[in-house]
Amino acid sequence: MTIKPVFIAAAAVFGATTAFADGPTPPPVDPPVIVVPDPAHDWSGFYLGAFAGGATGDYRLESASGVGPSVDVDGAIIGLSAGYNIQNGSWVYGGVFDISTGPEGITSQGTTGPFWSCNTGDCNVTINSVATLRGRVGYAMNDSLVYASAGVAWADVDGGIFNSAQQGGGSATGWAAGLGFEQALNDQTSLNFEVLHIDVGDIPFGTGIGTEDFVGNGAFTTARIGVNFRF
Question: Using CB atoms within 10 A of its CB, is residue 202 exposed (0-12), middle (13-18) or buried (19+)?
Fold first, then answer.
């Protein structure tokens, strides 16, 4: 009758010793949190845009007989654009067409030049409208895009010397090239900033002496900010 309590006491002592040797039970560990990164922005597809900004440049009036005064052109511009992008990894390729208003300027009547002078009226240059068709190549950093562009440019112009045969107008073709930055706001909308240099060669006005062309020789640069809507 005295053996049973002895065994019970021994078992209790052994259990306590084992629990002490194993140490306290560690607290439960939470499973690791896996953060899934947002998918990279996709620049591919067709887009339409609108933009506004400013332009500045300089044109020298001249003909085969000689040169005249220069006319500084500047002013606000507005325009529309349409383009298409193809993305391959971080590289974005595409093309864009845009059309906008252009700058204008006047050199006051009475200004003299080496050959031609603003005698009958103000010397003047007006870029009525300008359009470009350019290829683009850019590098995407998720929702930001930096790019360069280059292509052909057309312009409709008026100018010369008021109240003379030198006053006239026409169209001219040349080139355009620039750099830009685009920031996506969401999957469909982005803001765009671009600097573009446009040179359409000699812009036609009226006539000089006889039938020789009277032209403006120069170029202008635009800085513009716009919004693009992707489809």
Answer: middle
CB 74 within 8 A of CB 54: yes
Average pLDDT, the chain: 90
Give the Cβ contact number of residue 220 at 10 Å.
26
Do 204 and 157 meet the contact criterion of CB atoms below 8 Å apart? yes
Q: Which CATH class is domain 45-230?
A: mainly beta
Would you state the pLDDT for residue 57? 98
What is the CA 168 to chain-centroid distance, rounded? 33
The pLDDT, as a whole number, for residue 34 is: 64
Distance CA 72, CA 63 (A): 18
- pTM summary value: 0.82
Q: Which residue has the tokens 């006051």?
A: 108
Nearest-angstrom CA–CA distance, 197 and 151: 11
User: Residue 123 is encoded by which pair of tokens?
Assistant: 């010397």
Alpha-carbon dihedral 20, 24, 25, 29, rounded to 10 degrees: -150
Q: Which residues make beta-bridge pairs with 129?
A: 156
Q: Give the model's pLDDT for residue 8.
A: 43
Rg (CA), the chain: 36
**Amino acid letter, 135:** G
Quick: pLDDT tens for 62-118: 999 999 999 999 999 999 999 999 999 999 999 999 999 999 999 999 999 999 999
Check residue 29 and give its pLDDT.
72
The CA angle 116-162-205, to the nearest 5 degrees, is 70
What residue ranges do the domains of the chain occupy? 45-230
